[in-house]
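Researcher: Sequence recovery benchmark, item below. Answer with residues only.
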């Protein structure tokens, strides 16, 4: 049975109002990276999804008040040094704070030192995907004629398919039931067998280094899946593409089609006749969903799609190369970045806080409204997604950020409007924590972020 999943609905939030009035209220969620702070299933139920934002490209930064007082760099730096000195962070902390309007650096403590970003890493792939494919891009899942009387279900990168009724209220907007209905009409009573074609991606399904608890938070990376690879009990299936094929075969039977044999794998013949297709939500909304709930599988799939767009191998290694190359072409200095995956599951990922801040600032660029989904999708403090239960004080409603949590690393990257109305870009990464120390480090970072929101800091 498909789980009920709601889209995010508009809310009157200060920071979000500045970001294209793109604020959303969402259901509860947990930071989807394994660690001592994970207290909810890998994907919340119901899960949030943003409304489509097609055509929303109003100027962003001009909406800010340029006369709002700029915080004092000395004051912001002093506040940041208190965080670094806080024993809860372990001292291995990197922080960058910049003014969103002028790009002036207000604090930089070890900002160029590579550190483990945890799920803040997802911002890199999100921006790369929006740049490579465009915010209006949709992912097509098709049914085509195979050899003999075979119907081949071809994965196009949409792993948010539903086997229930499709609508804008459903994550992904695309339904295998709809695809089966259209396919049945095209078959016109023909008896068929069903196969799946998941050859869009290559290489292993799991990144080198993933294992143990990691596999409780990500599916084997394939270009076709229902519900990001989760079954009705919230467990990851062993073969998401084949499970989607089985659901498609069942949906064909429900439409009166005689389906024979087991679902198998087969590559669609070149030039095969398309019987039917369904389309995902626009990419900007897929990105927003990924960032709001920190969805690891979607993050990895998006990076593979960047690899395909740029002529790289659609493997973990090719995806990492493609994301870094795409960001470098956008002017981001990626020389100190090491990617072991693109979801942030591995401690081997190394990204300077300055790069996280640069990527966030790039998504705010008024000249690049196509990248804006990487910031409008960030959850709002105390109200939604991975920040729903955090920062209920001064930062509530005026801070949007990508969270990151591992057992030995914590991060927070995003935007905050201070007490004088100035919008600031920030990135904080604390790593090399003692096992079990992430909760205290995260509390310290939240207190720092709240102080930054409350501070005029003149």
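Model:
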């Amino acid at each position: 049975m498909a789980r009920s999943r709601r889209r995010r609905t508009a809310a009157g939030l200060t920071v979000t109002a500045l970001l294209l009035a793109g604020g959303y209220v969402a259901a509860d969620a947990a930071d989807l990276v394994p660690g001592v702070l994970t207290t909810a299933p890998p994907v919340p139920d119901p899960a949030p999804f943003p409304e489509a934002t097609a055509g929303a490209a109003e100027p962003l930064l001009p909406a800010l008040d340029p006369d709002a007082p700029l915080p004092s760099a000395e004051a912001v730096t002093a506040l940041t040094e208190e965080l670094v000195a806080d024993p809860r962070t372990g001292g291995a902390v990197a922080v960058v704070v910049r003014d969103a309007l002028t790009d002036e650096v207000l604090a930089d403590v070890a900002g160029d030192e590579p550190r483990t970003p945890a799920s803040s890493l997802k911002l890199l792939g999100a921006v790369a995907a929006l740049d490579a494919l465009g915010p209006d891009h949709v992912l097509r899942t098709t049914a085509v004629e195979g050899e003999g009387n075979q119907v081949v279900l071809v994965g196009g990168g949409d792993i948010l398919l539903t086997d229930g009724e499709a609508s804008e209220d459903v994550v992904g907007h695309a339904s295998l039931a709809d695809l089966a209905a259209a396919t049945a009409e095209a078959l016109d009573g023909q008896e068929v067998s069903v196969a799946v074609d998941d050859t869009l991606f290559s290489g292993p399904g799991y990144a080198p280094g993933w294992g143990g608890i990691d596999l409780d938070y990500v599916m084997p990376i394939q270009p076709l899946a229902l519900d990001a690879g989760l079954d009705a009990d919230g467990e990851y299936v062993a073969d998401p593409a084949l499970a989607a094929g089985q659901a498609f075969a069942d949906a064909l039977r429900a439409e009166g089609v005689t389906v024979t044999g087991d679902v198998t794998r087969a590559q669609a013949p070149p030039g095969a006749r398309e019987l039917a297709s369904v389309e995902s939500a626009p990419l900007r909304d897929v990105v927003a969903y990924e960032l709001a709930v920190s969805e690891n599988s979607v993050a990895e799939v998006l990076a593979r799609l960047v690899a395909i767009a740029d002529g790289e191998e659609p493997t973990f290694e090719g995806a990492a190369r493609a994301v870094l190359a795409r960001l470098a072409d956008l002017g981001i200095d990626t020389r100190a970045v090491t990617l072991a995956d693109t979801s942030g599951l591995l401690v081997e990922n190394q990204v300077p806080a300055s790069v996280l801040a640069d990527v966030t600032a790039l998504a705010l660029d008024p000249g690049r409204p196509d990248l804006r989904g990487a910031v409008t999708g960030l959850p709002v403090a105390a109200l939604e997604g991975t920040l729903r239960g955090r920062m209920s004080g001064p930062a509530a409603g005026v801070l949007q950020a990508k969270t990151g949590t591992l057992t030995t690393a914590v991060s927070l990257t995003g935007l905050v409007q201070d007490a004088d109305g100035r919008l600031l870009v920030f990135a904080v990464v604390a790593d090399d924590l003692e096992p079990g120390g992430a909760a205290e480090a995260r509390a310290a970072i939240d207190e720092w972020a709240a102080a930054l929101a409350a501070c005029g800091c003149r």
